[in-house]
């Protein structure tokens, strides 16, 4: 009996120690949570961006083109849901930030190293919030727009499956830090539901500037089209991921491309008389509007100086979503042209990504804490090339320049395609 009492006593002692440790851990977590306070969202900049886009978009949608009432109604319902998603995302990001910090998912801003901001723990992988809210909005929209026998329902759900798969793989990458060679393959697996469900045409429309060189307006690729779709998904997903490294750039470029896609879709719907063609472009709008709304909410926290980091979860999700809408909206060749800066960045990065030239873990510019300016390195990225050509500048100015470059390229391309 004495031995047994000693064991019980020992177990009681261990249990008490464990409880004490748990209490101290909870107390430490609670202190950290009390100290943690996310900076308020930069809503003035976001509403300015929204106004700049909304004016031409609304003019084309309500005034310039006569769009069928039923199609207009479904797009407006989608827009209302997306607008609600904007506010839900604004609310959820601070909540999720506490949880990811609790699980030590944070990073330090390398471009602010040596300053007070460079020592702050910044919540990482907040793209998971945007991705989940996007999926909820896209699923809810089915109730208002698709019937059970709709021809588009299978492809719509296949698109959501691919996007959901990519969100999962992106979050896994954020947690496990997957090597680059594996990252390049992830979108191929995520695109499988879309490729298996795709039953559309296998032709691409040649952009007008390229017709004299190709000699055709429409090119039938046959079985190669599915291979092309898979490659497009891989490119779009990884191109957003590698054109990054400064506050606001990943989300900013997604917003610019999303705005270009929406305007392109409205113009195509207004100019066409083919109901199937119009529905394909409306399908694209149904997915891009919630992407734009949730991304704007994320940008309000990710704009310089960033309160949160988006992580690979967001870049993979955004790239896959735009690849999906380009493929199922039947304008994948135009989408690739909207990605012109990303194509340039990919070509600059190719020697390092292929291993021909040494590729460091972070291909970021050098930051001078005394001046607060960035200097370009010899790494093959558009970020560093811009600094080498234009000279040293602040992180915010560099981001604005790169996004302005994206806007100008999209406008020039769109005008040239008309």
TrEMBL record:
<dbReference type="GO" id="GO:0003975">
    <property type="term" value="F:UDP-N-acetylglucosamine-dolichyl-phosphate N-acetylglucosaminephosphotransferase activity"/>
</dbReference>
<feature type="region of interest" description="Disordered">
    <location>
        <begin position="1"/>
        <end position="33"/>
    </location>
</feature>
<dbReference type="GO" id="GO:0006488">
    <property type="term" value="P:dolichol-linked oligosaccharide biosynthetic process"/>
</dbReference>
<keyword id="KW-0328">Glycosyltransferase</keyword>
<dbReference type="GO" id="GO:0046872">
    <property type="term" value="F:metal ion binding"/>
</dbReference>
<keyword id="KW-0256">Endoplasmic reticulum</keyword>
<keyword id="KW-0472">Membrane</keyword>
<keyword id="KW-1133">Transmembrane helix</keyword>
<dbReference type="GO" id="GO:0016757">
    <property type="term" value="F:glycosyltransferase activity"/>
</dbReference>
<dbReference type="GO" id="GO:0005789">
    <property type="term" value="C:endoplasmic reticulum membrane"/>
</dbReference>
<feature type="compositionally biased region" description="Polar residues">
    <location>
        <begin position="9"/>
        <end position="18"/>
    </location>
</feature>
<dbReference type="InterPro" id="IPR033895">
    <property type="entry name" value="GPT"/>
</dbReference>
<dbReference type="InterPro" id="IPR000715">
    <property type="entry name" value="Glycosyl_transferase_4"/>
</dbReference>
<dbReference type="Pfam" id="PF00953">
    <property type="entry name" value="Glycos_transf_4"/>
</dbReference>
<comment type="similarity">
    <text>Belongs to the glycosyltransferase 4 family.</text>
</comment>
<keyword id="KW-0460">Magnesium</keyword>
<comment type="pathway">
    <text>Protein modification; protein glycosylation.</text>
</comment>
<feature type="transmembrane region" description="Helical">
    <location>
        <begin position="283"/>
        <end position="304"/>
    </location>
</feature>
<feature type="transmembrane region" description="Helical">
    <location>
        <begin position="126"/>
        <end position="146"/>
    </location>
</feature>
<keyword id="KW-0479">Metal-binding</keyword>
<comment type="function">
    <text>UDP-N-acetylglucosamine--dolichyl-phosphate N-acetylglucosaminephosphotransferase that operates in the biosynthetic pathway of dolichol-linked oligosaccharides, the glycan precursors employed in protein asparagine (N)-glycosylation. The assembly of dolichol-linked oligosaccharides begins on the cytosolic side of the endoplasmic reticulum membrane and finishes in its lumen. The sequential addition of sugars to dolichol pyrophosphate produces dolichol-linked oligosaccharides containing fourteen sugars, including two GlcNAcs, nine mannoses and three glucoses.</text>
</comment>
<feature type="transmembrane region" description="Helical">
    <location>
        <begin position="252"/>
        <end position="271"/>
    </location>
</feature>
<feature type="compositionally biased region" description="Basic and acidic residues">
    <location>
        <begin position="19"/>
        <end position="33"/>
    </location>
</feature>
<feature type="transmembrane region" description="Helical">
    <location>
        <begin position="316"/>
        <end position="340"/>
    </location>
</feature>
<feature type="transmembrane region" description="Helical">
    <location>
        <begin position="43"/>
        <end position="63"/>
    </location>
</feature>
<keyword id="KW-0812">Transmembrane</keyword>
<feature type="transmembrane region" description="Helical">
    <location>
        <begin position="153"/>
        <end position="172"/>
    </location>
</feature>
<feature type="transmembrane region" description="Helical">
    <location>
        <begin position="75"/>
        <end position="96"/>
    </location>
</feature>
<feature type="transmembrane region" description="Helical">
    <location>
        <begin position="227"/>
        <end position="246"/>
    </location>
</feature>
<keyword id="KW-0808">Transferase</keyword>
<feature type="transmembrane region" description="Helical">
    <location>
        <begin position="184"/>
        <end position="206"/>
    </location>
</feature>
<protein>
    <recommendedName>
        <fullName>UDP-N-acetylglucosamine--dolichyl-phosphate N-acetylglucosaminephosphotransferase</fullName>
        <ecNumber>2.7.8.15</ecNumber>
    </recommendedName>
</protein>
